[in-house]
Every structure is written in C-alpha cells, then in structure tokens.
Amino acid sequence: MAKQQSFSLVLVILIILFTNSSSANAAQYNVLTFGAKPDGKTDSTKAFLAAWTRACESIKPATVYAPPGRFFLLNVVFPGPCKNNAILVRVDGTLVAPSDYRLTGNAGNWIFFQYVNGVTLSGGVLDGQGPGLWACKASGNNCPSGATSLGFSNSNNIVISGLTSLNSQLYHIVINGCQNVKVQGVTVSASGHSPNTDGIHVQLSSGVTILNSRIRTGDDCVSIGAGTTNLWIEKVACGPGHGISIGSLGKDLQEPGVQNVTIKSVAFTGTQNGLRIKSWGRPSNGFARNILFQHAIMTNVQNPMVIDQNYCPDNNNCPGQESGVKISDVTYQDIHGTSATQVAVKFDCSKKNPCTGIKLENVKLTYMNQPADASCNNADGNASGFVLPSSCL
Ligand SMILES: *[C@@H]1O[C@H](CO)[C@@H](O)[C@H](O)[C@H]1NC(C)=O
Ligand SMILES: *[C@@H]1O[C@H](CO)[C@@H](O)[C@H](O)[C@H]1NC(C)=O
Hints:
Keywords: Cell wall, Cell wall biogenesis/degradation, Glycosidase, Hydrolase, Secreted, Signal. GO terms for molecular function: polygalacturonase activity. By secondary structure, the chain is mainly β. It has two domains: about 25-220, 3 Solenoid (Pectate Lyase C-like), CATH 2.160.20.10; about 225-393, Single-stranded right-handed beta-helix, Pectin lyase-like (Pectate Lyase C-like, 3 Solenoid). It has helices at about 1-25, 45-55, 130-140, and strands at about 25-30, 40-45, 60-65, 70, 75-80, 85-95, 110-115, 115-125, 150-155, 155-160, 165, 175, 180-185, 185-190, 200-205, 205-215, 220-225, 230-240, 245-250, 260-270, 275-280, 285-300, 305-310, 325-340, 345-350, 355-365, 370, 375, 380-390. The protein is elongated, with a radius of gyration of 24 Å. The chain starts with a helix and ends in a 5-residue tail after the last strand.
C-alpha cells in the first residue's frame, strides 16, 4: 500500500513537472491559424507576418511554425527588435517566391530579418523561382537586379539550420551587419550558369560560422565582403560555382578590413576558383589579414589558389590600376588535388602594396597528372613542407 502511494506521488510530481515545463515552453504560432494557405498560390505574406508579430511581442520564448505544404510569399520583412530573444521559426514546408521577377526584382530581399536578436530559422525550403530573371539577364534586356532569397541584417545571435535554398534570383543568403551567426547543414542549389547567385555572402559581420553545408550555384560558393571578422568556415562542399572568395575588396576608398578568417576542410569540385582573395585595382584603405586556408581538396578546379589584386571589370574606374588593399598573413596548409589549368597557384598582388607573410605548407596540385605551375607578382612569404607547384614566393 505504502509502495503504491509513493508510486502515485511520483506520478503526480512527474505530471506536475511535465505540465509546468510544457507551459514554460515556447508559445506556438502556426501560420495556418493566421490564414496561410499551403496551396502554393495564395499569398500568405500577411499570415506569416501576423504569426511573427505575435512571437515578437511575446515576453516568453516563441515559435512560428509553418507546416508541410507550399506557401507563396510575395516578399516579407520580419522586423525586430522583439520582446524576447528566443524565437524559433520552424519551417517544415516550402516557401515559394513569385515566378514573375517584376514583383520582387527590386525588393532587395525576398525574406528579410532585421534588428532581431536570438532568432533560429530551422528547416524549410526556399524556392526563389530565379530562372525567369536569369533568362532576362542572359537576353541582355534591361532587368531588375533581383532579390536575395534570405537576408539577415543588423541582427545578433542567429542560427540558420537545415535550410535548403533553391534557385535564388540574386544571392541565396546574405549576412550583413550581424554578430554571432551560425549557419549549419544548409543546402544551396542553383544552376552553374545562374548569374550572381552567390551561396552565402557575409559582410560587416563578426563571429559568423558556416558548417557542414553543400553549395552548388552559378557564382561564389561563399563570398566574404569588407568588414568581416572572426569568420569560421568548416566542412563545406562547393561546386559548381566560383569557389570561396574574400572580396571583391577595395571598391571604396574608405573600407573596413577583413580579419581572422579560417576556412578549413572544404572541397571544391569543378569550380572556377578554389580559395580566392580578390581586390579592385583602385585606391582604398581596406585590408585582408590573418587568413588561414587549411585542408582543402580541389577536383578539376580552374584556379585552385588565387590572389587577384587587379580586379577591374571592363577596365573601368581603376585609376592607376594599383590596389590599395593590404594583404598579409595568409596561410595555405594542406591543399591538394587537381587543377583544370596549367597555373594552379597565382598570386597577383598590388605593386604599391605587395602581399606579405604568405605561407605555403604542404601543397600538392597537379594538372593533367603533371606538376602544375605557380605564378607570383609582388608576393612575399615562404614555403615549408612539400610544396608543388614549387613556390614562386
Ligand atoms: C578569431 O575568430 C575565431 C572565430 O572564428 C575566434 O574564436 C577567435 O577568438 C578569433 N581570434 C581573435 C584573435 O580574435
Ligand atoms: C617564414 O616567414 C615567417 C614570417 O613571415 C618568418 O618568421 C620566418 O623566418 C620565415 N622562414 C623562412 C625559412 O624564411
């Protein structure tokens, strides 16, 4: 009897604990409750915004939930600041952009979060419906520049996890002016011929981590713009596309630099570039320093390792052609695989600001089963370990 009583007591306590913990849990706002239609064609923008507004005004952690189905969204800005700093946006369905690019082509961003703190975007497929705009651009007609599929601006403590981004009009994901952002398990997919569809673009941000992601697209896999510091990229597969690029830097005279970037365990397959640093041949006070490229595998990459300080499309607007950007302390460690061209390593630095502190350690790149070539201009540094093509520093 006593045993049974204590058993019931434990049960009661467990029930109380369970009830308490679930009531302390996030308030849930399902977009269907606010009138979203998972039919792929009814504009659900207002419903998503209404669910967001409730979550944002909650003083407790809150969840916005989009169940399976296709939700058509025109374009949505999710604004902060919010009253809590733990909002989960969980998407089990697909968010679909308008296929008519005239509707969002000048909007800047299709799905946009700004001034938020502590937001996790989990799961979901973003279907950017980009091919219409790509075709317009290819035809040489006058077209809008296009919208980035997902933008986070001026936000802190962000997680983007398990998201798939398909066929963006312009960039897939942009992190701008943010601190402490974790992007993980993301898949980006667009045609290798799609214009300006960078996978992930980071700028003016600190403490961004990109992990375990797969990026197939027509432009840069990851592009790293001015003012990026403490960036960590690990276990990312790129290709097709233009590879990982620091830059273009130095477009502006006054520009914050790029500092403390680690890019490790990345694989490039059939990309135009592998590990690239690129700056305009223009005056600028920008810089890139303390960069570590470690453990990269190149498979049939046109320019596996490249520093190009003479970027000047159409030879336009580059007075004197000398880049003001100072590149220093760049380490390449354990980089191997195959180049699709004879020159696998090309360091073309600024005459006015030579690259300094370039270090090569254990590099092996071949072209058609032969040692590839290296070419250096105004690049200073040294090599250690096994380095092929032999260093031109
Ligand atoms: C460099 O960035 C990493 C994150 O990528 C950070 O953990 C580390 O503290 C930073 N180092 C310095 C010197 O700021
Ligand atoms: C390699 O470069 C580093 C710094 O750039 C320097 O400290 C070191 O002495 C150099 N080593 C050789 C062998 O030149």
